[in-house]
Amino acid sequence: MSKITLFGQIIQKLDRSIFNKLVDKHKTDKHQKGFNSWSHLTSMLFCHFAKSQSLRDISNGLRSATGNLNHLGNVHPPSKSNLGYQNKHRTWELFQDYYYELSKHLGQQVGFKQVKFRIKSKIFLLDASTISLCLSLFDWAKYKTKKGAIKMHTLLDYDGNLPAYVNITDGKTADNKGAYEIPLIKGSVIVADRFYNDFSLLNVWDSTGVFYVIRHKKNLQFKTVKELELPENRHPQLLKDEIIELATTKSQKKYPKRLRRVAIWDEKNEQIIELITNHMTWCANTISELYKSRWDIEIFFRDIKQLLHIKSFIGTSRNAVMIQIWTALITILILKYLKALAKHKWYLSNLVAFLRINLFVKIELQNWLDEPFFKKEKPPNFNQQTVLFDS
User: Fold this and answer.
1) Does any domain span residue 298?
2) Does 346 share its domain with 272?
3) Total structural domains in the chain?
4) Secondary structure string (H, E, C) spanning 257-273
5) pLDDT per residue as tens digits for the range 99-109
6) Which domain holds residue 16?
């Protein structure tokens, strides 16, 4: 048994020295007394781990465990009004920067790498997810006449399935427009759906040395330059592999180079999926499998919305919403780190549910991750039959 709660041991996994440097950079503790930035971070992590529904739930939840907070790093449980005030006024960029720094720090300690593709390029999955908001409460989140929303434009690192970059905009921003600001790494691969079939955007990627695999729109006008032979050991769903040029003058001005087009049959949905890429040497199987890996980002969005507190918000200001989203991303990073440390084959949903139940239980974290269930001792095996009656 441990003298520290599971939640306390999880908080101790975080590098506070990195956080303190960011606090100094953003000056978020200047003129602050009592409820400092570290207490703020811990409170918001508790919000996600416990899936607290309000400021009062967070405050009461931490205040009820006051005796267990000493090991969280001199954390002061907030009042409802104090937490609400800091969510509105303490800059969300502190938590954004800490997510990126923590991602690098934890990523060095545990291997998240998935071995599926033989290509050496770094693989990123790109997509956007809309979070609906009430326009009367979140009047800054413009979307439709009577509806508000924000959109998370996410570049997901295939290794570990964690965001390498997130751009949060209002709901009206188109997916492709929100992608212009993503950082580009030369030699990497971006896999995305048809909403990113923007030839001006693809030209920027190509000129930067970035490869892409994009599902193209049905109305794409092109002419075939050369039809490539499909390999004998190809995936049975591969239908076509060809080199193409864009047919319209407008499209050619935006993207003057040749493209490669691969068509595959989606048996599950009974439809043809047509892909374009600027990589000319990969086999068609690889291009097909790369696009299939795009489903991982859909799973990421599902997990963060279902498992953490991100579909409803405890504050209505833009700053409060941004803090809640970035602390949710820190939480999902911690959860995947714990999952990677464990010997037990956890499903992420089960890990979240069991942590939520045992958050303030005092038990050794690593032992609990490895063996979450107590093993029952087997009853003794009696091979000898007892004698009921003497002869």
Assistant:
1) no
2) no
3) 2
4) CCEEEEEEEECCCCEEE
5) 999 998 887 66
6) 6-100+318-370
